[in-house]
Design goal:
Residues 31-103 form the BTB domain. This is GZF1 protein. InterPro entries: BTB/POZ_dom (IPR000210), SKP1/BTB/POZ_sf (IPR011333), ZnFinger_BTB_dom_contain (IPR050457). One of its GO terms (molecular function) is DNA-binding transcription factor activity, RNA polymerase II-specific. The structure is a single chain. The chain has a domain at 13-66 and 73-137: Potassium Channel Kv1.1, Chain A. Helices cover 54% and strands 10% of the residues. The protein is built from six helices and three strands. Strand 1 (33-39) and strand 2 (42-48) form a beta hairpin. The protein is flat and about 95 Å long. The relative contact order is 0.07.
Length: 204
Amino acid sequence: MESNAVLLESKSSPINLLNEMHQLRLLGHLCDVTVSVEYQGVRAEFVAHKAVLAATSKFFKEVFLNEKSMDGPRTNVFLNEVQVADFASFLEFVYTAKVEVEEDRVQRMLEIAEKLKCLDLSETCFQLKKQMLESVLLELQNFSESQNSEEESATQPSVLLESKAAAVAEADQADSPLDPPGSPADRPRNGVSPEVPATKSKEK
């Protein structure tokens, strides 16, 4: 009798794997590549694992798959025009899936992600830049609305005065008769005042 297949899946395994690889890199264990970066005379070397770099960066994947022979125990890769701090942040991201950088470095991290063809870092930078832009737009909108409300509150008293003046004028018209004094309705018809009765003609 065949038994049904069941799925054994660990939610923590990917995180544990990353953490362990990160610790191995920090300790320099089992590292098989040295990446030398240089920018404006500042140079530094970073040891890492080919498998991790190849899995997270198409640039490194192409380099490692196309290399003909090992240059000794470790492969050496040289990167020009990459700042030391940026590559250190890149390494931390690919080994931990997170990194903390200053806001003004997000654009530089996006550039290094594109240079090294790291899709995960590119998407993360794009999302963060989008959130930052939305936040700035929201602040501008709130500032604009507060300015408009201040202008409206400044003009409101004059509007109130105008509306009160209009209301008083309407009240005055309501209190006065429909036909003002001196109008044709108040004038006597045929020269005879309506209040005074017509006198009888004298009897002969």
